[in-house]
Design goal:
With about 270 residues, the chain is of the alpha+beta class. Helices cover about 35% and strands about 30% of the residues. Strands 1, 5, 6, 7, 8 and 9 form a six-stranded mixed beta sheet that branches. It has a three-stranded antiparallel beta sheet with strand order 2-3-4. Helix 1 runs antiparallel to helix 3, helix 4 packs across helix 5 and helix 6 crosses helix 7. The two termini are about 15 Å apart. About 25% of the residues are buried.
Length: about 270
C-alpha cells in the first residue's frame, strides 16, 4: 500500500459539493430580494463565502451554532434511549441530560463557552422514546474508516455512523423544515457504506437512510421540542459509489493542493 496522503471525512466532501454548486446557491430563492428581485449577494460573494466556509472546516475553526447543538442533543437522546444508558458529560460531549417522567420533559444543557452562551433544550420525553423505537437493535456511533485509492495516492475516509441496523446505515438529521431530496447530494450515504465494505467489516450494505426530523417547539409558547420524522432512503450500489467517490475525492484533492497555503491544520494531509 502506498503511503497515506490524505485523511478526509464526509462533511468536508459535503462542503466541497456546496462550493462546486456555488452558482446554484447564488441563484437560489433565498438569495433573491423579494422587493427588488435582485441578488442580495453577488454570485462572486456567494462563491467566496462557500470557499471560506470550506477552508474554515478543513482548518477546524471553532464555531457556535444553536441548530447544531440542538441536533447533537437530539442524537444523544436517541442513543441513550435505544441503549438504555445514562449520559456522562465528557470533553467530547460536555452537555448534561436530565429527564423527568412526571413532567414529560428531558432537558439537555450545554455549558457556556467562549463562543456561545449556555443553551437549554427541552424535549418532549414521550416523543423521544417513540422516535427511538425506530432504531431499536441498532449499533450507535460506530467509527469506520477505509482506504480509497486515487490517482493522487491513498486516501483514508473516516467518520462515525449514527446508527447501523442490520445492513442499513442511518444518519440522523434535524432541520426546521424538510422537503424530500434535501440530502440527495450528501456524501455520507457513499462514504459510510463504502468504509464498511472496503474495510471488510461487512460484505454488503443494502441501503443508506438520512432519517430527517423536522423539529418544532422550543419557544416560549411551545417549550417542548418534538417533530415529524421523514425517512430519505437510498439503495446502495458499491460499484457506482466507488466511481462517484473516486471522482469527487480527486477533485477535492485538486482543490486542497491549489489552496495548500490557506490550510493551517495539516491533518487532512495525513500529517
Amino acid at each position: 500500500m502506498q503511503q497515506l496522503k490524505y485523511r478526509i471525512y464526509p462533511s468536508l466532501l459535503d462542503k466541497f459539493e456546496a462550493y462546486l454548486r456555488a452558482d446554484e446557491e447564488a441563484e437560489s430563492f433565498f438569495n433573491i430580494d423579494n422587493e427588488t428581485g435582485e441578488y442580495k449577494k453577488s454570485p462572486e460573494q456567494v462563491e467566496a463565502e462557500l470557499k471560506q466556509s470550506l477552508i474554515d472546516a478543513i482548518n477546524r475553526v471553532p464555531f457556535a451554532s444553536e441548530a447544531a447543538d440542538k441536533g447533537t442533543a437530539f442524537n444523544a437522546l436517541i442513543d441513550m434511549t435505544v441503549h438504555n444508558e445514562k449520559h456522562v458529560p465528557s470533553e467530547r460531549a460536555p452537555y448534561s441530560i436530565i429527564g423527568d417522567k412526571e413532567t414529560n420533559i428531558v432537558q439537555v444543557t450545554f455549558p457556556a463557552t467562549e463562543l456561545a452562551p449556555m443553551r437549554n433544550f427541552l424535549f418532549d420525553r414521550n416523543w423521544v422514546i417513540e422516535q427511538a423505537k425506530y432504531f431499536d437493535g441498532a449499533v450507535s456511533q460506530l467509527y469506520v474508516s477505509a482506504v480509497l485509492k486515487t490517482k493522487y495516492g491513498d486516501v483514508e475516509l473516516y467518520g462515525f455512523i449514527d446508527e447501523l441496523k442490520r445492513d442499513v446505515v442511518y444518519d440522523i438529521k434535524t432541520t426546521s423544515s424538510y422537503t424530500f431530496g434535501k440530502y440527495e447530494h450528501g456524501w455520507q450515504r457513499h462514504v459510510y457504506p463504502y468504509c464498511l465494505i472496503a474495510s471488510g467489516e461487512m460484505e454488503s450494505v443494502k441501503a443508506f437512510e438520512y432519517t430527517a426530523f423536522a423539529l418544532k417547539g422550543g419557544t416560549s409558547r411551545t417549550p417542548l421540542i418534538s417533530g415529524v420524522r421523514y425517512p430519505e432512503y437510498y439503495t446502495y450500489n458499491h460499484e457506482q459509489t466507488v466511481k462517484l467517490l473516486t471522482n469527487h475525492v480527486e477533485h477535492f484533492i485538486e482543490f486542497l493542493e491549489a489552496n495548500r497555503e490557506l490550510i493551517i491544520d495539516k491533518k487532512i494531509f495525513g500529517e
